[in-house]
Structure formats: C-alpha cells, structure tokens
C-alpha cells in the first residue's frame, strides 16, 4: 500500500488537514526511490539520481539526504512512465519535497517555532506587522537628539541592540539544525575541496538546469525552461550583494571610523543598490512561476507559507530601494521604520521559513561532494 501524499484542498468539504508523520513520509519516498533505482531512466537528470544509483538499500538518513539534494525541477516526473494512473503512482518530486520540508521542521531549533510558520502565510504576515509596529515605536520613542542620515531617527546603538540578537539567535537555531542533519544523514568529515565543489554547484545552480543543460520543468509541465534558475540566481546574488553591502558598512564604521550616511559611489551603495534591484526582480519572478506551477508536484500544505516568504523578501528589498530614493525627504522616518520592521521580521523568520532551504541545500551538496570524492 502506498501512502497518499497529495494534501486535500482545505476548502474541500470533509477534507482532512492531517499530514503523514516522518516515518510514513520517509517510507513512501523510499518506495519510490527504490523503483527509480531499478529503472534508472532518469540517471542523468540531476545530482539526485547518481546518488540513488550508488546504493541498493536506503536508510532513513539516506532519504533525508536525497530529499535535500532535490531541487524540485520536476523533469523526472514528466519523463517517468510509472506516474499515475500506473499502479506504481510515482510522484518523486512531491515525495522528496515532503521529506525535505519535514526535515527542516524537525531539525531546526526550537522545533515548535520551526513548525509554526512554514504552512501559514498569515502568520508570516503577522510577524511582519509585529516588526513594523516595533520599529515605528522605536523610531518614535528612541529618536536621538542628534545624528546624521538614518541615525537622526534611530541611533546606531539602538539599531545594534535590536538587530544583533535578531540576526545571531536565528543563526544559532539554524546551526543546531544543520548539526542534527549532518548526524542524521551519516555524513563524514569533509575537506575544503568538498566545500568549494558544493559552492560551485550552488553558484551555477546546475541542478536547476535539468542536469543536461536544457532547463527544468517547474512551471511549464513537459516544456523546458531556464527561467526558474535565472530568477533563483537573481535572488541569491541580490541577497549576497545586500549582505556584502551591510558587511562593508559595518567594516567602514568600526574599522575605519567612517559612519553612515554613505554617498552613491561608496562600497555599501555600489553593492546594495544592485543587490536590491536583483532581489526585487528575482523574488517577483519566483512568485510568478510558483503561481503557474502544479502544486501537486510539491508540498502543497506549505504553498501559502512559501509564497508569503517570497513576497516578504521582495518587500524588504523594495522598501530598501524606496528608502534610499527618499533620502533627504520627509518620507524618511516612515520608510525607515517600514524597511527596518520588514528586515526584523525576515531575520526572525530565517530558521522557520523557506529561507532555511539555502543552508540545508548547501550542506546536502557538501555531503554529496564528500561521498562522490572521499
């Protein structure tokens, strides 16, 4: 008996909202992986299938590793002869997506919070409202007597007091989750070359290229497209540029005693403005493709949470650009509170939203590099 992974629409009368447990999800994914291992038609598609072909038996940790290697490009589904109505009823993208989603929710600390936001876009919106309210209060109540630029409305020390713990504590939760993942999957100690190999794969996003260079099938069914990879790259590189912008500003402030504000040709602005633009383009593109894609080939129950997180990241980058454009105007205090409130919500949600997939995906790629080239 196979376990039904397709979650009923919540609006369907009498539909159950219960989902299978971890053991059931892994067992169903194992059943499908073993059929794929016998067939091997898709062995050149992406990193997942060579990893499957190296083994004959799959422990629970092996299935968790395969699930986090999967990029949900869906090419294997449209090439498979054993999908429904065949009695095997394979839907490997959905089976691995359910296990992958479950692994984030199980392993990230603290677990109750890890399970709270993935499914519920409304809760993510609620966290944004809380972040906005807190920053509007801070800009109003903690306004300094003097300061330049943004520091005229919220002092540097106040920003550090708010955002340092909001950034560092979520990273602790993610680090605990990654340590648990490494143990669960039985990964061995890796070397620097394994890390560089994984970073190379992540930077190019080869697995979103279908493994054969023709693109993936995420939003167009059996037609290939590279758009999802392009939008992912725009989002990833935009985020890295924005992070580099903040880091360079921190170095200028503390090492070279050059506090903000910075001119357009300064390093923080030369990195941050293109980063923000790429983030807006990438997140809007990903939201558009997600709206077109078949939800039955993913973890349907988290569709709303994933879409809400994409839109939150878009909102963070768009308000950052608007804040920069409004420099020197009366709009700055309000836009500063809106932007920083969105950033605060984003930081706090990092371990409990789709953002965590980047950390787990890179870890899975490192483990795969170690297994391929011990």
TrEMBL record:
Q: Does the keyword Transmembrane apply?
A: yes
Which key words are in the record?
A: Membrane, Transmembrane, Transmembrane helix
- Regions crossing the membrane: 121-139, 159-182, 237-256, 262-287, 308-326, 332-352
Basic and acidic residues compositional bias, start-end: 1-12
Region (Disordered), start-end ranges: 1-20
Looking at the keywords, is Transmembrane helix present? yes
What name does UniProt use for this protein? Tricarballylate utilization 4Fe-4S protein TcuB
């Amino acid at each position: 008996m196979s376990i039904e992974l397709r979650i009923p629409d919540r609006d369907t009368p009498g539909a159950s909202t219960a989902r299978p447990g971890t053991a059931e999800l892994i067992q169903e994914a194992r059943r499908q992986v073993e059929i794929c291992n016998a067939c091997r038609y898709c062995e050149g598609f992406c990193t997942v299938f060579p990893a499957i072909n190296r083994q004959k038996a799959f422990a629970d940790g092996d299935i968790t590793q395969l699930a986090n290697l999967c990029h949900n490009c869906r090419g294997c589904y449209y090439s498979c002869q054993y999908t429904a109505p065949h009695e095997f009823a394979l839907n490997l993208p959905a089976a691995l997506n359910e296990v992958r989603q479950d692994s984030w929710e199980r392993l990230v600390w603290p677990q109750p919070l890890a399970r709270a936001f993935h499914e519920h876009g409304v809760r993510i919106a609620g966290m944004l409202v809380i972040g906005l309210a807190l920053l509007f209060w801070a800009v109003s109540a903690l306004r300094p007597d003097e300061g330049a630029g943004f520091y005229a409305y919220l002092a540097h020390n106040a920003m550090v007091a708010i955002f340092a713990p909001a950034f560092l504590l979520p990273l602790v939760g993610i680090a605990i989750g990654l340590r648990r993942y490494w143990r669960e999957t039985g990964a061995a100690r890796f070397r620097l070359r394994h890390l560089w190999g994984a970073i190379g794969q992540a930077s190019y996003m080869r697995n979103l290229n279908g493994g054969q260079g023709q693109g993936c099938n995420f939003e167009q069914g059996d037609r290939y497209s590279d758009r999802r990879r392009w939008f992912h790259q725009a989002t990833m590189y935009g985020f890295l540029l924005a992070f580099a912008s903040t880091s360079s500003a921190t170095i200028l402030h503390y090492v070279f005693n050059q506090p903000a504000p910075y001119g357009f040709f300064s390093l923080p602005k030369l990195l941050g403005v293109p980063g923000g633009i790429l983030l807006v383009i990438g997140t809007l593109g990903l939201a558009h493709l997600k709206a077109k894609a078949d939800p039955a080939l993913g973890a349907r129950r988290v569709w709303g949470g994933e879409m809400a997180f994409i839109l939150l990241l878009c909102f963070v980058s768009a308000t950052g650009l608007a804040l920069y454009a409004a420099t020197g105007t009366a709009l700055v205090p309000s836009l500063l509170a809106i932007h920083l409130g969105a950033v605060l919500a984003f930081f706090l949600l990092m371990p409990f939203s789709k953002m965590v997939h980047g950390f787990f995906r890179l870890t899975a790629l490192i483990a795969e590099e170690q297994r391929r080239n011990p």
